[in-house]
Write a structure and sequence with these properties.
Length: 837
Amino acid sequence: MPRRPTHPPATAKTRRGTPADPLAAYDAKRNFDATPEPRGKRGANTRSLRYVIQRHDASHLHYDFRLELDGTLRSWALPKQPSPDVTRPRLAVQVEDHPLAYADFQGDIPAGNYGAGHVDIWDSGTWTPDGNAKRDYANGKLSFTLHGERLTGHWTLVRTDKPARQPQWLLIHRHDEAAPAPRATPRTKAKAKAKPLAVTRKSSAKPPDDMRPMLATLVDQAPTSDGWHAELKLDGYRILIRIAGDDIRIFTRSGQDWTHRFRPAVDALRKRGLPNAWLDGEAVVANEHGLPDFQALQRAFDENAQSDIVIYVFDLPWCNGQDLRETPLRERQATLACLFEGRQTDAVRVLQPVTGELVSLWHGACEAGLEGIMVKRDDSPYVSARSDAWRKLKCSQRQEFVIVGFTEPAGARHGFGALLLGYYDSDGKTLRYAGKVGTGFDTGALLRMRKQLDAVETANPPLFPAPHPGGRAPVHWVRPTLVAEVRFAEWTRDAHVRQASFVALRTDKPAKDIRREIRRNGSANSKETPSMPKAKSQTSTTRSALPVKISHGDRVMDTHSGVTKAALAEYYNAVSPWMLPHLAGRPVAVLRAPEGIGGEMFFQKHAAKTIAGVHRLDASLDPDHEPLMQIDDTTGLVGAVQMGSMEFHTWNARSDLIERPDRVIFDLDPGKGIAFRQIVEGAQLLRGLLDELGLIGFVKTSGGKGLHVVTPLARRHEWEMAKGFAQAVAKHMARVFPDRFTATMGPKHRVGKCFIDYLRNYRGATTVCAYSARAREGMAVSMPVHWDELSALPGADAWTVRNAVERLEALKQDPWADYGKAAQQRVTKAMLDRLGD
């Protein structure tokens, strides 16, 4: 978890033996022999502080906001143009300091350099701080007035408490004469600053033995009336801290004593000498991306990594002999801030409330990849129950479910296939089925959880009527004692979760307390209240354990389906047990689309650039080129996605015996006027011919319009033999069924016919790998199927990144289970002679 700095952040690196230089990071990222940008020279303070906003058309168009302070330009990147509308704050991601000379820079940063692209000065002028600029900047709330050509008036930069690799702020234009009034919101009055209560002098009174937390109501709309503030919603465990002298204890929301799990926090609080109190807060751990991650928190508990845990406190219901539960929230929070002034620790910190237009704050939180925001009424008392005065606005659907059963794994999957989910009605007695979840697990989690599931297995279903989850996999029932937190896209009409992804097991909540969370209208005193922002793709916020860090995970790769880069990585991570047997050990080519479908795409067959987990083969295998590539594990698969890869295409030979192909592939490609049903019939006819020749064929969808029939071979044939056999089969089919097939390339030859593409079988040719996604609208995948399934298929794009994993988990048996047995097939002269008849 990043720590809140107590002074303006500066790089810790030194340059030429000098003290830490705030421009060292700026210099380190640039080659001044190749870029026209000014060198990182610190300037002297000027009487009039400059500011500049530069429009930067780099890999993504954004705006760079820079304020002169202490001899440099403090700098933030804004994904959107600054808005003078007070209802539209902007996310501002802090970047390295820039030299003062950069305020005059505009022009082109050449390709290959950091920040390559065109820079224009969008606005410039001077700025005046409202108070002590250095102090306010260090404290994370800097208010100032801009005197520019485009922007004027009063503004505030507020640093959020969202843990991130780069500090994130909100840039907010405050009400003033230069600002347009918001359309749907009346002008609000300035709030009087809440005064802390006089509770700092120590009292010997002991706090109550028990305190239950105040809970928020899930809503789908933000209130627009005055008198509310927001807090960032953290992805962790709700906890309450009881301080009674040196006796400090930490409890879960259900009252379990978890003090032993928070020793660093307890020790830190004990050293601070705080008065007796009850504190309300959230325990979190940041993942490798700097985001609060519930799975990372669980790992910290499992591995006893308590020093990784940070507790953010946000309320003070009791302090120093005074019961503050009837005191307005604004005063409790002011007292809490005063209590921790100068006493914050690395383990326990105060979560700062955020003021501003709530809908914009909510949308901004979702854009930043957070879970959402908490909205709290400023004058709310503290009640140990669920209250409408506290509301939670989520960026995606997420809640706890009772585990009622699980399915057996299929294929190369271990542990189990999917968890069956349920929840209790309001009476706490009737258990309802809520669907299943089969993604979001890594192999270790599958095996660990299987042991826990086996321990509570029971012969009879725990709910009536017994659900029928579908698929062929056997179902096991369990006693309803385990609780799983699940993220999902939406509820279906029959009250089942759709596109669900596992987050973690919850041990702090009893199963009997699990209810379905119903979103209600959260508006307050407003007829026109903006609703929940359109949800991002389900997997874009999924926190599955990926072996490679994914940058720009929220980049939409396909606008049609909404699949993001993170969702694509999660898909390949999930299907790797099925996909790797067809991918590993072979030369591979990738189709890269760094900006997604609709942007630039290119096919890469050689390892011109190192990709995490992608192996470079011996250069002698393909002379006069860069080395061929090979991917043997999940790290390489996901690492290629990180580099923008969407499709994976493999050779028909393995790298260790590259001159001996081990399969022949027939690509059935429909011509104009051909329905998919005719392609299915064509594949069945081709299978019949292979059967007559004594060969076993396997079929998969192409993920596009056609089908691939794959015939395994013993590694004894040369390339010419494999290609010659494929050509002979294609021509034979075209000759016997001239109204159905053609073996001649070109659109004019395939009108009303199916083209059997046999050219996939020469040395160096590739075919899309089984389970690979396709860079086409909808993100369909190439899916192996059983021959018996063909007649029911609606199309070659039946399975996509969205639903492929669910299909695989429902399978009772791998449709290509016998593939290995057919690997000793050989093409004989007799077969070729028969095809020539």
